[in-house]
């Protein structure tokens, strides 16, 4: 049976960096599921058709990392039919040997509730805004407002809201270096693996 690591958390919490590092360390596949929602939102038109028709060319677009793409993603991510259209792809990805790391908002709660390891990665709002501002070369105050709006939409939606799974290990990266956060995550997986 493949080994699954589910990583959830708000934007700019460090979950993507941790997911990539875990995949490299354990030799697992990695899927940034936020990219599926960003690509669906960026495609335009009927979002359910866009989600069902996603191809490699959609996922490779270079405008997907922008704050605007994040906002568009969180709007279409609240539509239950859009989420349902993306489930199969994520399940097939998670079934790959020897294992897979998926990061997003609902991996431990909805997509892979039987994952062997669940991490909920978080950080203070100010730290997350500063990180995202540095990454995108944007204003921290503006990033803070943007992140809070997106977090609110992601936590308050009716379908698959962002929240830690009951059995998730919570990792607060506010005061951790990247290396320390990765070491903690590897230790959490190694306890089970
Ligand atoms: O992780 P990222 O910031 O790229 O995600 C963009 C948006 O996609 C999130 O704000 C959220 O609304 C949505 N998303 C989701 N479920 C996931 C991954 C992302 O609803 N598993």
TrEMBL record:
Domain Cytidylate kinase: 5-40, 62-189
Ligand binding (ATP): 9-17
EC number(s) on file: 2.7.4.25
Superkingdom, natural source: Bacteria
Reactions catalysed: CMP + ATP = CDP + ADP; dCMP + ATP = dCDP + ADP
Listed CDD domains: CMPK
Alphabetized Pfam families for the sequence: Cytidylate_kin
Assigned protein family: Belongs to the cytidylate kinase family. Type 1 subfamily.
Protein name: Cytidylate kinase
Species: Paracoccus nototheniae
Protein encoded by which gene: cmk
